[in-house]
């Protein structure tokens, strides 16, 4: 079997999947990438800037979606459709570049931003079937343009404009959720302090054995709110029962998928769900999505903004977002590590029990 390539371009043409991408049976896709569901509401934002009935009805729909799923789609959002088209085109052009061009922005070794395969986290037990390019856009003073691709040529200008418009949309949605909690409309934004914004452009190439892997493993986002632009292929999936059942979110032309993250979940004291989701791949089409993460500043406090009488906080004590993020990533990697060890132990035990040369004792006895 050939070694893992530095990009997925060549692997997408193979007729087998490298073992580093193969997930355990309990993690493999249960629903096809194109078996779409309309369970996730599509909400028009036309009139959200006004006062009165239209805004109240839009707010009601958003709140209901956040309480039920933590995820919804928005149309009539005011984002320039030409800008969306340009952003999508440039993203496709970037991933079509030769491997050596993409790897000029390799973000391995702790670099903040750039290109990588699978995940920017070190130590993942199983790799996701995706390529990504990541850049940090807000706060503006923290931008490191050396980590932003310089090809295609218009990348910087278009992504700056896209980032600005998505920041406005995210702030507008946070106002709705603040009002729903009975707070001033800027309460959630203030809780984020100097809000961070990270963009992750995902490319999921055609996969030779999509039933064995995931484009992006099951997770919740750590931040406040995520705004996702996806193409029409399909692959985003959500669950609300701990992964027992999954639905594939119906792609809607020109829409953004919005989901709440852990920070938004904690600030609402659990009222709004942190969307549990994953991405699946397929052997027919490559897929593209652009995720905009609206996150609090690293030193922002993670604690409910309002606790109703008779309720308890779902957060034991106030901590910084930076600490919350570190704990989440560390716990995730540790779970993956322990699962891999358990699987390795099981395989060793099975191999031992099949041996015709050694008496068949239990694995525990051998280790004693």
UniProtKB/TrEMBL annotation:
The answer to whether the entry has keyword Iron is yes
What Gene Ontology molecular function terms does this protein carry?
A: 2-oxoglutarate-dependent dioxygenase activity; L-ascorbic acid binding; metal ion binding
**Its annotated pathway?**
Secondary metabolite biosynthesis; flavonoid biosynthesis
In its keyword annotation, does this UniProt entry include Metal-binding? yes
Needed co-factor(s) = L-ascorbate
- InterPro entries associated with the record: DIOX_N (IPR026992), IPNS-like_FE2OG_OXY (IPR044861), IPNS-like_sf (IPR027443), Oxoglu/Fe-dep_dioxygenase_dom (IPR005123), Plant_2OG-oxidoreductases (IPR050295)
Source taxon at top rank: Eukaryota
Instruction: Cite a single GO BP annotation.
Output: response to molecule of fungal origin
A Pfam family for this UniProt protein? 2OG-FeII_Oxy
SUPFAM superfamilies found in the cross-reference section: Clavaminate synthase-like (SSF51197)
Q: What are the alphabetically sorted keywords of the record?
A: Flavonoid biosynthesis, Iron, Metal-binding, Oxidoreductase, Vitamin C
Q: Which residues form the Fe2OG dioxygenase domain?
A: 194-296
Which family does the similarity line name? Belongs to the iron/ascorbate-dependent oxidoreductase family.
Q: What is this protein called?
A: Fe2OG dioxygenase domain-containing protein
Q: What organism is recorded for this protein?
A: Penstemon smallii
């Amino acid at each position: 079997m050939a070694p893992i390539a530095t990009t997925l371009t060549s692997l997408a043409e193979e007729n087998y999947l490298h073992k580093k991408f193969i997930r355990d049976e309990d993690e493999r896709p249960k629903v096809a990438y194109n078996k779409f569901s309309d369970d996730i509401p599509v909400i028009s934002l036309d009139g959200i800037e006004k006062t009165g009935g239209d805004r109240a009805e839009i707010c009601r729909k958003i709140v209901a979606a956040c309480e039920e799923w933590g995820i919804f789609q928005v149309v009539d959002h005011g984002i320039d459709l030409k800008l969306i088209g340009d952003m999508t085109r440039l993203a496709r052009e970037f991933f079509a570049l030769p491997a050596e061009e993409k790897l000029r922005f390799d973000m391995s070794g702790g670099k903040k931003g750039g290109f990588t395969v699978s995940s920017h986290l070190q130590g993942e037990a199983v790799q996701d079937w995706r390529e990504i390019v990541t850049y940090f856009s807000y706060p503006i003073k923290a931008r490191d343009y050396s980590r932003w691709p310089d090809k295609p040529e218009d990348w910087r200008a278009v992504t700056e404009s896209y980032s600005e418009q998505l920041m406005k949309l995210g702030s507008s949605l946070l106002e709705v959720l603040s009002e729903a909690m009975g707070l001033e409309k800027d309460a959630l934004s203030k809780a984020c302090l100097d809000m961070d914004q990270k963009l992750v452009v995902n490319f999921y190439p055609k996969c030779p054995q999509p039933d064995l892997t995931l484009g992006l493993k099951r997770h919740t986002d750590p931040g406040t709110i995520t705004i996702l632009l996806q193409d029409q292929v399909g692959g985003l999936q959500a669950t609300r029962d701990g992964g027992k059942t999954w639905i594939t979110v119906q792609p809607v032309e020109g829409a953004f998928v919005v989901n709440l993250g852990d920070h938004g979940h904690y600030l609402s004291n659990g009222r709004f769900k942190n969307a549990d989701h994953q991405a699946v791949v397929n052997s027919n089409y490559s897929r593209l999505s652009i995720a905009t993460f609206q996150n609090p500043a690293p030193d922002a406090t993670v604690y409910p903004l309002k606790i109703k009488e008779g309720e308890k906080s779902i957060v034991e004590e106030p901590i910084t977002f930076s600490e919350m993020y570190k704990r989440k990533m560390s716990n995730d990697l540790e779970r993956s590590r322990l699962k891999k060890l358990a699987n390795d132990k099981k395989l060793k035990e099975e191999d031992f029990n099949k041996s015709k040369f050694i008496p068949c004792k239990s694995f525990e006895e051998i280790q004693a």
